[in-house]
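Table 4 source record.
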Amino acid sequence: MLSVIVDAQGAEDRLAGLFAALTPAAVEGLVREVLVAGAAKTELGAEAVEAICKDMGAEEVGDLPAAVAQSKSDWVLVLPAAIRFRDGWVERLRDHLAAGPADALVRGQREGGLFAKRPAGVLTRRETASGLAGLDALLRKLDRRARRLD
């Protein structure tokens, strides 16, 4: 089972959509917990972020390093709040884990046109993610060696 860490920085308004997309993985027993890091709570409002997390059974934590330290699983799936998964992502994740977990990039759907950057998250061991300041640093660290789960 995985600890999912959501980097909500700047995309707090996308949390509800991501939580809905994570539900099938939780139902299949792949997700142990969801931790939300970096929620600034500006535009959406502190109460709204808190309510969304409470409704979905997620826990708010300060920042990504704190979330990694607090995570309960050996493997963490670190995602940006803005990611939207492509069809079949739960099956690809399940198959990847069944084959023996290894670092992987989890890329979402492209939004904003043909040349828009695809949002990406990372599946990695908790100790690999610890000490890194944010999701971008983790993506840079694993970019060339991690398998892609598209």
